[in-house]
Design brief:
Belongs to the RnfG family. By secondary structure, the protein is α+β, with helices and mostly antiparallel strands. It contains three helices and five strands, in the order H-H-E-E-E-E-E-H. The longest helix is centred in the N-terminal third of the chain and has 44 residues.
Length: 204
Amino acid sequence: MQIDALRERIPYHGGLLAFFTLVTSLALLTANRITLPAIERAAQDDLKSSLEQVLPEGMTDNDLLAAAVEVDDNGVKRTVYRGTKAGAFSAAVFGFSGRGYAGEIKLLIGVDAGGTVTGVRVLKHAETPGLGDKIEVAKSDWIRSFEKKSLENTPVAAWAVKKDGGQFDQFAGATITPRGVVKAVKEGLQFFAAHREEIAGAAK
């Protein structure tokens, strides 16, 4: 009877709820600690794979992930992965974003020491399937059109889609998407040019 009476009291229910909440929290914390290292390793492996996609094989001989540096770009902190070959600065990879039809398009841009594009890949986007998703290398070779381009060999006016007087193709029914990517790559090259000495010096 005393137990039944105790169960009718509000503190009993509150204490029971608190107990199960504590047990659940401890279980989640333990699971998180167990799985976090594996998740972090997978994220690092994915990033390493992406970095390798935008740089030609043999261009660097160092660990890009270990050679990252934060560069201040007018108040925006950008992570730059610096590549070296035989100790000399040879390449850089960094992220840059553009605005597409459906939102932000996150890019990874690779350049050689002189600022020429070695590769561009889309990391994340929300563009329309069948139209804007042609920016993905798995759907189209369009993203490869930036390779070997630089601010030196491509005039500023040419950094636009053909509809706007530039030299890059647009997609039928989806001009906004490639327009945003072209603008982002151009601005990425301008960022590298403005901070090249800083990046190259940090890579030594």
